[in-house]
Amino acid sequence: MCWLFVTNGFWHVLEALLFREYSPGLATSLLYWIIMYNIAHYGLFSGRISLQAFITSALVGSTATILMIGSLFMMRKRQLKTT
């Protein structure tokens, strides 16, 4: 589940860049990046989490984020049409 929040941080960065305003999840996404480092360091590299589970969660989180980024571009396109 943490992968979803880690990759979601990239969505907030893109949102802030595209709309040129602060995205509410931008600051908290940094905390999830720190948590993901700890999961990788103390879980994956120490053998407590299997590589298969780590990769599966990365794929699920990345897919969800790609869908969110796609919706962001659709919102931006719709916003440009109205102005």
Could you list some keywords that capture this structure?
83 residues, mainly alpha, 0% strand, single chain
Distance between the termini: 38 Å
What is the chain-wise order of helices and strands? HHH
Domain count: the total is 1
Radius of gyration: 15 Å
Biggest sheet record: none
Runs with pLDDT <50, length 5+? Answer: none
Structural class: mainly alpha
Number of distinct helices: 3
Structure description:
The chain has 83 residues and is an all-alpha fold. It has one domain. Helix content is 83%, strand content 0%. It has 3 helices and no strands. It has helices spanning 2-19, 26-44, 51-82. Helix 1 (2-19) runs antiparallel to helix 2 (26-44). The longest helix is centred in the last third of the chain and has 32 residues, at 51-82. The N and C termini lie far apart (38 Å). The mean pLDDT is 85.
